[in-house]
Fold this sequence. Notes:
Radius of gyration: 32 Å
Structural class: mainly alpha
Distance between the termini: 41 Å
Number of helices: 27
Strand content: 5-15%
Shape: globular
Amino acid sequence: MQAFELMNEQVKAYLAKDKTDYALLISGEWGCGKTHYYKEDLQKNAGKNFRFIYHSLNGATCITDVVNSVFLEIICPEKNIKQLTTGKSLLSGVSKLFADTNINTVFNAGSLLFNYCIDNYGQTKLASNENKIVIVFDDLERISDKVDITDLLGTIHTKFTLNNIKIIYIADDTKIKHRKKFNNEKEKYILRTLAFANDKNFVFDSFLKEQQIYSEDFMFILHEVFNEPQVNLRTVRFCIECYMDLYLSYKELPDDKYNSPEKLFYSICQLGKFYKQGNSDKKELQEQIETYFYKSYLNRNEDKEKTEYEKFAEQYYSKLEKQGFIYDLIYDGVFSKDDLAFYLKKPDYNEDPIFSLSNIQWMETKELTQKLIEIRNNLQDKKYTYRQYGFLKDSFLPNIIKLKLDSEENIYNLIADSVFAEQNLKELTDTFGYWQKDSFSELKEANNSFEQKLLLKYEEYCKQEKEKTVVHFYTCLKNCDRSIFAYTMPFQTIYTDIINFNYLDKIFELTNKSIYHFSYFIDSSICRLIEAYKYYTPELNSLNVFLEKTKTVLQAIDENDFLKIQAIQNLQNTIELAKQHIDNKE
Length: 586
């Protein structure tokens, strides 16, 4: 079971108990999504039998005020709470205004009587406990230093917990460990501290739908950029808001200049995360998003003294010539912190003779020969990666052959040795990854011996990636992990791949719960997809294999194992529906 599911099950088990005399503490780093989990998951899915009361302790200075605020919510309709709270505040304010006078005594007595009535009536209301009340105290670590935190826990325990009210505290408990007695005394009131874990798939889904920009591609990008186990959700929300700012800017463009900024989502998430980690200031981030994306698109064809990508390069002290490849990376939506690091590691990048060949028409033969020999020597030393292949093929190769300095086959062998060198394998793998995401970049056919070798390596890479996907898919099914949807849905050959990599039998050996999870995956990825035939028609044969497998498994199951029979029959029905949906081309 995944960490989030385990935590969620423990919270629900606590709520389901008839009688409890203890509280729970959900602890996690600031920004990791604890409050979001309560508001968007627990409260909405716990059922109608519970009445949730939420109270933030941020800045609270008085235990009595905290208790009375909760009692007010318990005993009053929501629409009357504001008026009563205002009245109480007015009594307190007037009392302070007329300090050391008889008027003060009157209003102070009124305030005390108000508190007494609320407390007394609240206790009576709790005794009946008609609804199952759950009180959630958030921001425990942000309470004022004026409050003894163990006194607060004791008061809440006496007033609420012992009246069979469920209490859930939300905090980063590492921020309150310095409080005296907390570690020693919390066990009197808090039975369990649960480490909070993100359900990233649920949160990403809700964030994107909140902005009405949900897509499988965006989900995939968020999982890829924020791939650490515990994600700061404020950073995720910040990145999405940055994208929305850009999106709204693009929407204002005239129709003839409009171009969807969706391909920039990956880059903006990387830049936003980079900024949130403290690696750039607000002004710099704004310039990167607005200037290097938005304005560079609008003005890309205008003659300027310096282009936007040149300014970008100069900002980071790079010596790149006016080739435009930084702009291309940005505009294609694949520019990231790693790409920037690649260029910054090469301060002598433009000193390489390969870039001088763009000015070949102004070179003398002797100078050109010298440059070509330099490049060949660099090739022999394995200094070039796939990034430079276009220059080598289009400028270097034709000229070295024209001057009869080397043969075409030998040069292609040198290119292969350099590109496939061990130190360049990571970059080559990243390139293959881009090819998979952006089909326009993929090398469709081989035009020479090097490209033949390159395509073979790419096919090998694709096979390995497919196998990784199948293994991940199987693991997600086994653990009933919801990340299966974001990770696997883009791979529309998953059913064929499962068969090809011999995972068919393994899937049918999984638990009933996992089989139901598989049925839900098929229903979500195919049955609910508009025009599914466009994507899954090639998978019909593989789905037929799955369908035949369900029939074979049903024949072999013990007739008394009705739960297994029910799970397989449900899967069988789902596959039948998926096939019909694919066949329906209307």
